[in-house]
Amino acid sequence: MTLIEEIDKIQKKISLREWVLSELKNFESKYGMITKDFIEKWTSNEIPEPEEHDLLQEFLEWEGLSISLQKVESELKKIEKRIKES
Asked: Is the N or the C terminus of the chain less surrounded, counting Cβ atoms within 10 Å?
């Protein structure tokens, strides 16, 4: 992979991270809790699965965005480690 391609890949991942963070902030504002707290309560069933389809869809999207953030941050850390080692 060329340096230009590597830089482009990094920029795309950073843009994706920024977008995901923005979307997470929207959920946090709407529901009045940070994502970490939501995930802990959602996965432990402190927040029960809602019967309302739209609300369930939002909670699943929030959970998915949280997973996406973890994934993209992990990928960025791998790139950072690879750069530091070269």
From this structure: C
